[in-house]
Structure formats: structure tokens, C-alpha cells
Amino acid sequence: MVRGSVGVIFGETGTFEFKVMVFDSSKVYRGAYVKVWHDASSDEKDHTWVLGQVMAIKRYSDSFSIEEAMKGQRADKSDDKIVAEVVIIGSRDETGMLRAPVIPFSPGSPIFAADEGLTRSVLGLTGNEMNIGMLEGTNIKVQLSVNSLVQKHCSILAKTGSGKSYTASVLLEELLDHNIPMLILDPHSEYSSLKVEGEGSSEDFARFGVKPKGYGNSIKVYTPASKAINPDADELFRLNGMNLTVRDLTSIFPDNFSTTHTGILYEAIQKLRVEMETYTIEDIIFEVGNDKSKAKWNVINVLEQIRDTNILSPNPTSITELFQKGKAAVIDFKGVAPELQSMIVASLCSSLFEARKLNQIPPGMLVVEEAHNYAPEKGFSKTSSTDILRTIASEGRKFGLGMMVISQRPARVDKNVLSQCGTQVIMKVTNPNDLKAISKGLEGVTSYVEEELMRLPPGVAMLVSNEIERPVLVDIRIRKSKHGGESVNVLKAARTPTPPPPEFAANQIPEPVTPTPVRRPVPAVNTVEIHEHDVLDIPVVDSPGQDTNFTPPPKRQPSRPPRVEATNGEESEGGGKLFKKLFRANR
Ligand SMILES: Nc1ncnc2c1ncn2[C@@H]1O[C@H](COP(=O)(O)OP(=O)(O)OP(=O)(O)O)[C@@H](O)[C@H]1O
């Protein structure tokens, strides 16, 4: 036996795989990386270490008595034979290209446990910025490149409870440590816990080479609902309610505006533009009320319901405030109905993309949790946010706007979005449709990968990336910050006494009133294109200043148009449905 060897090649060998009789089963296990010296070629420059991976392992013995074993008397297992099936990954040549041997290995060649340097270089694990964990079963750190992850987008896919938000938070911590600005769309209030330092055993922290850390100074949580509904939020999130255009309004709920309704709206807004420097949705409602047609009532109905969401404000949350170097803005959708969420995502992401194109904000990352809700695959549902998310997926990289797509139902995420993700972090998936959707999107995926995904334990992810040669399993590191996605303990909750109701109903608490600013034109800034390696070196452009000497314009007091009565079944139902949609989750 050659010193240090853990097994020997035997039987028929090929250029893609070979079998090994194993001597040291502590070093040769399913998934382990091994190396073998390749000198079968007569050309000496082809003599090199070749990396392989154990894909299957079998054990057998033909020298024991079944009777003894049945009595539990088979104590000596030293004559068991362990056979490993190894797939050849290859070696790097002097130009850095991956090469696979063209002549099979000789039976009898010794194999060894692979060392870190060879494993890293052959697999292409050359990033050194984001520490996401260890190559499974090894002490080899898996580090990703910030530029590659952000510019080429990434996805985190897994069935529920398999560690998606935990893994996403690990990536977000690393991006925050590199000052990358982020906008996080958070439907389940999971990411505000990034503020709090994590808990865990010191051995776990030491094993992954990280320390507990809270990101309180870098995270701001915004609520599109109210502070009463979401008291933990730091700020209200509001969309611009001033000088809305026909497009702004009809894109909010496209299904609720027919051509006739759009025409009425157009006429009203045209008049307002001539008469007033600034106008609000209240003014639009007033002006539509002057229309002579019956169809105006449906338009008014929809406009009133948009107004009543309180999402529109004369003091909107600015993109430059949300997207800053070293900061993450979490839009916490707690208490916001799904249709309103999509509308907000559509509007916010459009502004984000435009601001990035105009270089008003630095390059950074948009994080979309539960992406199947905001960019659903055709045939599952339709939302107003799909188009802009598709656009960011296909064009974002040119402008340095990356996207992290997180979903528990990969089959239901728009394929145009998913297929643009250059890095995929996939955890346990069992649904056959989801497995199919994932494997369709991965080049050269074998049935082995699908089987592996079904068996992954919590906390272990398969990493697939353009940068690495083949999918690798990663033991995701412990979080530096506290995990916020714990499931609810139903039994404990049932045993805890219910607290008395609060004095005020949530929606009775007034929100601060703000003055109406005059809308300022966006300064003309040249559109910029961002290229590789630009993300870490962020040019920050100051946001257009706010006018502090501003005096609110005199507000027109509309004589309120009468409340909408049903003119026919179709019109009244349209408005009623919308109302229910918007407030279902809030009341
Ligand atoms: N790398 C890890 N290390 C330690 N624990 C982990 C790891 N990944 C996940 N977990 C544990 O697994 C549990 C589920 O993880 P997580 O909340 O991220 O799942 P999820 O897929 O986001 O679930 P859901 O779809 O319900 O939101 C967590 O409570 C967490 O403690």
C-alpha cells in the first residue's frame, strides 16, 4: 500500500469514471474529493494530479455466516470490502483550462484524499470575498465573488422549512459587510432580525470563522401599512401621490381601467395640468366628478380605493433614501394585501431601475422573497410586478443592479427571471415539478443532482454557478445575526393566555400629516453602463436636494362627488372587488 493512499483503482477504468477498493473509509465517503496521479500518457507535461469525487459507495462481505449475524455475533467486520465509484472532474492546465484525461487510469493506481489547493483550483472556487460556509465534509471554505453574485443575479430555492431565509440572510450579511446597498422585499417580516446579534455555540462560530454580529446600524425597516399595524417598523413607506399620470394610475390596477375609463382619466388629468402646478389624487377625483358620462363613477370608485390605502403621499419615500451604500432597506409587507404588495413592488422596482440607470443610486442588490408571488410563471397568476422584475433580470446586470430571487416554489417563478440567475443556491426540494423546473434551468444536470436535492439535510445547499465547474454541496455557515424565520410553536401559543385587546383599533391611530411639496423635475443625468468589478467600487451620486423652503400650494377643496352607486352589475362589482382585495389583510 502506497503511503497516505486511501484506496486503489481496480477493474475496468474509463476517462470519466473508475472504481476504487477503499482502505480508509474515514476519508472516502459519498461526496468526498479524491486525487490520483495521472501518468498514463507518454507525454510528461500531461503528468498531473487529477481531481475526482466519490458519487456512490458500496460495502460487501462474502465471508460470514448469516446464522451468526442473525444471532448478532458478527463482531469482526475487518474483511468487509468497500467499493467507491469515482467520477473524474479533471485538472487545470498551465493556461487555467480544465482538462479531463484522455487515457484511462491504470488499475492498481493509488488514490489519495484531495488537498485544499487542488480541490479549490479544479472546482473553480477562487472567489475570496463572501464566506458562505464549508464544502460539505471538508474544512474548505466556500467563498463567492461579490461582483459575480450581484451582477449575474442569484436564486435561493428550496421547499419550505429547508433554510431559504437562513441562507439568504447569510448572503445578505456578507453583502452588508462589503457595503453593498440592498432593497429587501420581505413578505413575512423575516429580515428585520438582521439587526440583532446572533446566538449559537462558540464552537459553531469558530468552525466557520465568523463572530456574532448585529447589523442594527445598517438596516432600516419600512412599512407600507401603518405603525399601528407594524409597530416594529422604523419608518412608513409611501409612494408618490403628487402629479400622478394616467400611466401611474392605470398601471396600479390595469384590470380595473377599460379604454373608456382611461379616456375619462386622461381628460381630467389634462385639465389639472393646465390649471395647477401640483395636484393630488383628491384633485383627480374631483375633476373626474365633472365628467358627464356614467362611466365616471367606476373611475371615481377605483381612485377612491387607491386613495384610501394611504400608500400615496405628498412625501414619498425616496429611492435615494432607500438605496445607500452599506445599508439595507427592508420593505416589510406585514398587513398589506397581496394585490397592493404587487402594485408597490411594481412601482418601487421601476423607480429603483430608473434611478440606477440614471446613476442616482449606487450599484446594489434587489432581494425578492417569495418571488413566485411577485413574478409568477405564466398560467399560475398575473401580477403587475412581473414585467419590471423580468426587465431587471434581463437588463439589470448592464447597470449594476442585481437580483436575489428566493422561492419555495421554483416551478411557479417566471422562467425568464429564474433563467437569468448565474448563481443558484438550492436546498432540499422534493416536489417533482419544482425539481423539474430547477433541473431544466441548470445546464448538464444529471439525475444524480435531482436525487441529491431530495436528500439534502437542513443547512446544506447545492451551489451551482457559472464560476464553478460542477455543482458542489455547501454546509451553510452559522448566521452572524439572529434568525427571524422561526416557525410558530402552535401548542405553546395555544397554552399562552390571550392578552386584552388594545385601547384603539389599529386603523384609528392617526398618521403624521405632511406638507405637499412641489414636484421637481428629475435632473438630466447621463445613463451609465456598469461592467464587471464595478460593484465593489461604487460611485455614489448625491440625491437631488429636498426643498426645505417650500410652501404648500393652496389646496382646492373639492365638493365631494356623491358616493358611487351601482349603475350596472359589472361596474359596481369591479370596485367592490378591488376594495375587498386591498383591505382583506388589513382589517
Ligand atoms: N445553515 C443553517 N445552520 C443552522 N440552522 C439552519 C441552517 N439553515 C436552516 N437552519 C434552521 O432551519 C430552520 C428553517 O430555516 P428557514 O427559516 O430559513 O427555512 P425557510 O426555507 O425559509 O422556511 P419558510 O419557507 O417556512 O420561510 C430554521 O429555524 C433554522 O434554525
UniProtKB/TrEMBL annotation:
According to the UniProt record, where is the region Disordered? 492-518, 535-587
Residue ranges constituting the Helicase HerA barrel domain according to the UniProt record? 6-92
Question: What terms describe the molecular function in GO for this protein?
Answer: 3'-5' DNA helicase activity; 5'-3' DNA helicase activity
Q: Where in the sequence does UniProt note compositional bias of the Basic residues kind? A: 578-587
Q: Which residues form the Helicase HerA central domain?
A: 131-350
Q: Name one Pfam family in it.
A: HAS-barrel
Q: Which Gene3D superfamilies match?
A: P-loop containing nucleotide triphosphate hydrolases
Q: Could you tell me what reaction this enzyme catalyses?
A: ATP + H2O = ADP + phosphate + H(+); Couples ATP hydrolysis with the unwinding of duplex DNA by translocating in the 3'-5' direction
Q: Where is the composition biased (Pro residues)?
A: 551-561
Q: Record's InterPro entries?
A: HerA-like, HerA_barrel_dom, HerA_central, P-loop_NTPase
**Which family does the entry's similarity section mention?**
Belongs to the HerA family.
This protein's name = DNA helicase
- Give the source lineage, highest ranks first: Archaea, Methanobacteriati, Methanobacteriota, Stenosarchaea group, Methanomicrobia
